[in-house]
Structures are given as C-alpha cells and as structure tokens.
Amino acid sequence: MNRTSDLVLGAAAIAAALAGSAVVLLLPLAAPLCGIVFAALSGAVLMWNIGGQSIARRTGNPTLTHAPWVLLALSVLVVAAWVLPLFAPSTLDSSALVALPIFLTLLAYIAYLPATLLFWYADDTGLTRQVLSFRRTLPWQAIDWVYGAQQTTTQQVYSAVTVAKWTDRVLIVEAGPERSLRVLLSSLFVGGDARPLLAAIQSRATNAHFGFDQMPAVLRAREGKGTGQLYSPARSPSSTISH
C-alpha cells in the first residue's frame, strides 16, 4: 500500500460506511437483508483467500499470512446491528443509535480488509504478493534493495489524552526505482510469523543490499546500470504521525 492507495481506501471506507449506516436510518426493514448479503460476500471472500493461502503453504514455500480473526469479529458486529431491527421496534431514535456503531465498525472492517487479504510467499521465481487470485512477483535476480520501515500512529482526544498507539512495521523490497513490494510484518491486532519469509529473502535475493543505510550503494549500482533515476523515499523508514 502506498499513500495514494491509502487515500483511495480511506475514501471508499467512509463512503461504504455511510451507505451501510444510512440503510438503518432510511430503510430499516431492508437492513436485515443487507446483513445477510454482507455476511455471504464477506464469508466468500475470506474462504477464497484462505484457500489461496493454503495452496501457497502446501507447496512448501515460506509464506506470511495474517489471521482473519479481527475481520470475523467485526463482521459479526455489523451483521448483528443490521439484523437487530427484526427483534426490536424501529424508531428514528433507535435507528440512529444503531447507525453509529455500524458506521464505525464498517470503517474498521474496510481498514483491516487489505491486511487480512494480502499474503506473501517466496518460491523459486521470486517474492510474490497475492490478494485473492491477483499476484505480483519480483524476481530474485531483480531485487536490489531490502530495508525495514516503521510508522507509529497515535490517536488522541482533545489533543492531550492518548487513547491508542500502535506501530506498523513493514519490509520494503525493491527491484529498481519503479518496482517494489511492501510486506506488512505487524500492526494493531495484525501479526504473523515472518521469520521463514525473511530468511528466504535473505538467502535468495543475492543481488540485494540490505538495510536503509545502504542507499548510497544502491544509488551507485542503479546509476551504473543506466537507470538514470535517483531514489527519493516517499516516507522515512521511521516516522511518527499523531492524530
């Protein structure tokens, strides 16, 4: 994920959450149907993706996946809120109380969706990122730079009280200045055993420089290959963002 895709995902999440919460306010009788459809689609997507992850693991390739438990818990909350009008009288006030949790839960659901669906594996051809049936692979011989980065996010209330703080840790794998993969190692409620994948990258990416401090060597090597492009990281390898 890069900054542009983060903005697109954020806009889509807000739009979807607003639409989902508006159903309870405007069409309370249709809300249970939305819950059933959402549960079916969410379940199908998760099963499809889990199947792809299982295939990657069965081949014996080092694989990094993230468990879908957070997404499943959020799905249950969303469906329960949508189905609630079947068991309780629906008024404008009660619908408004239900709409806010649906909005917040849908926002969290869409925010966690990429972290759950994306997985990475190393095979003989290279490092691959996959989501559903879509893949992107960087060949081992083309990878020239591997380095870690982290970003700490702090959520505050009234600019004084910290209510949440977490650190996103990623591994950035580049094959020249134009091609890269970001491997999510850990985030809030997200994690997995990345050691097999990291060991595979270390041993197979034999043309790569490892570490952010290797930037001068990487630039010299790229200029020597005639790329004619200088690398300028969009984000520092360690940064703090406060909201």
Describe the structure.
The structure is a single chain. This protein has helices at residues 3-26, 31-58, 69-83, 92-117, 195-204, 215-224; strands spanning 63-64, 119-122, 126-131, 134-139, 145-157, 161-174, 180-187, 190-191, 209-210, 238-242. By secondary structure, it is of the alpha+beta class. Strands 5, 6, 7, 8, 9 and 10 form a 6-stranded mixed β-sheet that branches. It has a 4-stranded antiparallel β-sheet with strand order 1-2-3-4. Residues 228-243 have low confidence and may be disordered.
Structure annotation, total helices: 6
Please tell me how large the radius of gyration is.
21 Å
**Global structural class:** alpha+beta
The N- to C-terminal Cα distance equals 20 Å
Taken in chain order, the helices and strands follow as HHEHHEEEEEEEHEHE
Percentage of residues in strands: 25-35%
What is the number of E strands? Answer: 10
Shape: elongated
* Residues in helix, %: 40-55%
Largest sheet: 6 strands, mixed
Low-pLDDT ranges: 228-243
The whole-number mean of residue pLDDT values reads 80
Topology:
Elements: H1 3-26, H2 31-58, E1 63-64, H3 69-83, H4 92-117, E2 119-122, E3 126-131, E4 134-139, E5 145-157, E6 161-174, E7 180-187, E8 190-191, H5 195-204, E9 209-210, H6 215-224, E10 238-242
Parallel strand pairs: 5-9, 5-10
Antiparallel strand pairs: 1-2, 2-3, 3-4, 5-6, 6-7, 7-8
Give the tags:
6 helices; single chain; disordered C terminus; 243 residues; four-stranded antiparallel β-sheet
